[in-house]
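Please go through this protein, sequence plus structure tokens, and consider how the sequence yields the tokens. Keep your notes short.
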Amino acid sequence: MQRLLIVGYGDIARRVCDRLPPGIEARAVARRAAAHARVTPLVADLDRSDSLARAGGWADTVLHCAPPTPEGEADARTARLLVALERGAILPTRVAYISTSGVYGDCGGALVNETRPPRPQSARAKRRLDAERRLTDWCSRQGIALVVLRVPGIYAADRLPLDRLRAGTPVLEDAVDVYTNHIHADDLAMIVLRALEADAPAGVYNASDDSQITMGDWFDLVADRHGLTRPPRVSLAEAERRIPAGLLSFMRESRRLDNWRLKTFLDVHLAYPTVHDGVPHRVSSGSSFKAQSA
């Protein structure tokens, strides 16, 4: 990896850039200029094909972390990106795509590895699976190595559901609660960097930590470590009355991600193996936190 094209410049892309080895030239395609010393901005819009001309023909490696089209079940943004890349004088040799574990749909709490056929239930997950399939077909035709990272809930000290806890939004009672999966943002950035390396085996990986935790217990953990009231536990019927549909959709899916391939083939060693290691304790009334194992 000498020339890296980043498509979509958000928090994870920034964390990746913070960790880039010396000597790598990086450019970022985003609607607004990326503010990072290591990155040359390419202001463009994935919803406008005519703005993507400079995206192709330069990079040997592509990190695609832009969100899909906001509506429908197909990701037109990824389709436009692939057209732009194909029009370039040279093609990349490696692509890494940040997808979602939501492509598996509800698995009834089962342990899920990458061989499980995707059955997305939400439109947003269907768009991610569409992007995966477009990338797989295109990279296969072009002889390009593709790494797909199926990512669950991302958290960090500044990425916690504190507003939801303060609002008193309920969670499901134990009898109907669902398993949820997590990855610390810094660990995800490290995983992405590994996926971009030339010797990283191509394929699909569950980019999740080792946690085995229900959604209710996750919110209790965050509440306890920040001195907040634990959320009320309610039945599914009551949740349907009190929780917005978009948020409730996450409570209709239960699975436990198996990260064996991630740790075996990418040789990943997580800094925060579980959420108990990564969720910080509040140590003052200000903004200071410390990470501490439970």
Observations:
- The mean pLDDT is 94.
- Residues 3-158+181-212+255-281 form a domain with the Rossmann fold fold (CATH 3.40.50.720).
- Residues 123-142 form the longest helix (20 residues).
